[in-house]
Design brief:
alpha/beta, Rossmann fold, Spore Coat Polysaccharide Biosynthesis Protein SpsA, Chain A, seven-stranded mixed beta sheet
């Protein structure tokens, strides 16, 4: 029998039906991590079946979903205009990221889809005036996933949808804290024809137009039928091909990064060994020199009279022109710069001949104050503010403060001050004579609360106030280390205890331990600094008040340091950030920007608050003097300083 004479059966025809081809297309945009991969086949089919005139995506990120729509338009040669709208800055749910994400996708986009697609880098609300009412046929909403934000996006863009309008919602089956797409979807599907998928975090299709495309209307009609279940199962099975590849790509990328890191580490090791050999040779030359032998009597004198030796070394540093690194904005007009547009501040280079390791270690020891013995006569107060604090956490931080006080030999000269911003915790620490409680005035915030505790501490004779978060724990030697470094700084420095198990990533000088700002998680504030600065600015309810205090202290001539010997257990690196926390950060960011004249940063924060449906803060802080702005750094978003990793 001639196979060419056989008429294909209907079932065989279905296997190579061109209408199904989009389900099996290989995407152009591959190798990017995304929870959207499971919906790429459906997005390609939907675009071809509905043939929308205008597609708008709200929230594009790395472009996996958007590329699926565009790829269908390109392959089918549709007369469709596509628009990707995103700030490409991230949010508290997806995390924040730098411009590399935008630049990488823009390069891919322009190479493949520039003929019919436009990337709009702005907020969703800012893009609204660009579109006529009734002009959008397909809208994909995948921005901030809180209930308020996604509802705002849907209601704002609803007038822009045409009679054929279709809306896609991603993450309709995600019930994580702060995610509310599922809630809005549950409300909307009662009012509109719909179809939903449960795989890959869930995707909901809503036919909001009165004249939905035929394929969409038929799809919605089988949503709750046996046929709909079969369709869902088959597309879920098909999706596994791309979700599996995406996962494999991520693992391979991770291996590549590990290999690259290993090669870089090996290179650094070779370079370090070469430098060590060179330094050893130079040191041997110094030891063999005539001048070294002639100065031996002077060194013996220095060892027997440490105070004299210290004065001589300080004078030598001035003569040699060495300077403590100054962290400053590298250009004027920082307040008008957009976030990320400014080069990272750098420490001033040390001048003079190369330093031997022994000299560096000696300078570190002096900066840490290792030459001082902590005097039992020094008066210290540890201040703790509670708000919905776990009982066990409060007992732990109080106990750790008592142990640290005892280890420092401070005894009755030290106190633990407690202020309840929330529910009373008297019973948790009942009978503890080391605790002094202030009467609660309600939730006055972090800044105002610590100012009250600080005022009480200094009024009782304390020389240094140590603010400690209630969910942390002081190392037994933490107060000793903080007091030694403070004494080395003549009590003229804000000093941050190093958080562990993971340090804050902001930079600090490895010799002097100067840092651009100090975290309030565990912070030593001497009386002189508090008096000169007025303490925390109570315009800030919570967050950014420590950055502001640090900048004001530096502008007033005080130092800001981190003490790596003073450890404070504060395991928050894996703690999820709630949408409420993210909004509070941005509200405080607006206040900080207004105070320090950073209009670009303020605009960015206001846009993000508007996008989240949150009203901006109406607080108008007292602006700092213009010459103080040199110490502020808004170029790194909420890091406010270059990071070490």
């Amino acid at each position: 029998m001639d196979a060419r004479s056989v008429e294909p059966s209907l079932s065989l025809h279905r296997l190579f039906d061109s209408d199904l081809a989009p389900l099996f297309w290989v995407p152009e945009r591959r190798g990017r991590d995304s929870t959207w991969w499971g919906h790429v086949p459906f997005a390609q089919w939907l675009t071809c079946a509905a043939r929308p005139r205008v597609i708008v995506e709200l929230g594009t990120y790395r472009g996996v979903s958007y590329a699926a729509f565009c790829e269908a338009v390109r392959r089918e040669k549709l007369e469709t205009q596509c628009f990707a709208i995103d700030t490409w800055q991230g949010d508290e749910q997806s995390s924040f990221y730098d411009d590399s994400v935008y630049e990488e996708f823009r390069e891919f986009h322009d190479a493949h889809y520039a003929a019919f697609s436009t990337m709009l880098r702005c907020s969703f609300d800012e893009a609204l005036p660009r579109f006529d009412d009734g002009s959008v046929d397909l809208l994909h909403i995948d921005g901030l996933h809180s209930y308020e934000a996604v509802r705002h996006d849907f209601e704002s863009w609803l007038p822009k949808l045409s009679r054929r309008g279709v809306v896609l919602f991603h993450d309709i089956h995600v019930h994580w804290p702060g995610f509310g797409v599922w809630q809005l979807w549950r409300e909307l599907k009662k009012r509109h024809p719909h179809f939903e998928f449960q795989h890959s975090c869930g995707l909901g299709l809503l036919a909001v137009g009165s004249a939905a495309p035929q394929a969409v209307a038929e799809l919605c009609a089988i949503g709750d039928t046996a046929e709909g279940t079969v369709l869902r199962d088959r597309l879920t099975f098909l999706a596994e091909r791309w979700t599996t590849e995406a996962g494999l790509s991520q693992k391979l990328a991770g291996l590549s990064e590990v290999e690259a890191a290993q090669r870089a580490a090996e290179k650094r090791m070779v370079e370090a060994e070469a430098k060590a050999a060179e330094a050893t040779a130079r040191l041997q030359e110094v030891y063999a020199s005539t001048s070294w032998r002639l100065l031996e009597p002077a060194r013996r004198l220095g060892r027997s009279h440490p105070g004299l030796a210290q004065a001589v070394r300080r004078g030598a540093m001035l003569v040699r022109g060495r300077r403590v690194p100054q962290f400053h904005s590298p250009v004027d007009g920082l307040g008008d710069a957009e976030p990320g547009a400014i080069e990272a501040p750098r420490p001033v280079e040390r001048r003079g001949p190369p330093e031997e390791s022994s000299i560096v270690v000696a300078e570190q020891a002096r900066a840490l104050g290792l030459q001082f013995q902590v005097s039992g006569r020094r008066s210290v107060a540890v201040g703790i503010i509670t708000y919905e604090t776990d009982d066990a956490d409060l007992r732990r931080v109080v106990s750790s403060a008592e142990v640290a006080i005892g280890r420092a030999g401070l005894g009755a000269e030290a106190r633990v001050l407690v202020l309840d911003n929330g529910a009373a915790t008297d019973e948790v620490t009942a009978g503890n004579k080391a605790i002094c409680r202030l009467q609660s005035a309600g939730n006055v915030g972090f800044a105002a609360g610590h100012n009250r505790l600080m005022e009480a501490a200094f009024a009782a004779g304390a020389e240094i106030y140590v603010a400690a978060n209630p969910d942390g724990m002081l190392h037994p030697d933490a107060l000793v280390a903080l007091l030694q470094m403070s004494q080395a700084s003549d009590d003229r420095a804000l000093i941050e205890a190093a958080q562990f198990p993971e340090e804050h990533p902001k930079i600090y000088d490895p010799v002097t331990f100067d840092t651009p700002w100090a975290s309030g998680a565990c912070l030593a504030i001497p009386r002189a600094v508090a008096k000169a600065t007025g303490g925390f600015d109570e315009t800030f309810f919570m967050y950014c008040e420590d950055v502001d205090l640090s900048w004001r202290a530096r502008a007033a001539g005080f130092a800001v340091k981190i003490c790596p010997r003073a450890l404070f257990l504060h395991p928050v690196t894996n703690r999820p950030q709630t949408p409420r926390t993210g909004l509070m950060y941005r509200q405080s960011g607006v206040i900080l920007a207004r105070k320090w004249g950073a209009s670009g940063f303020e605009r960015s924060m206001l846009q993000q608050l508007q996008q989240a449906g949150s009203a901006p803060s109406d607080q108008q802080p007292q602006p700092v003097p213009a010459e103080w702005r040199r110490v502020a750094d808004f170029s790194r978003l909420f890091s406010f300083a270059p990071a070490r990793w």
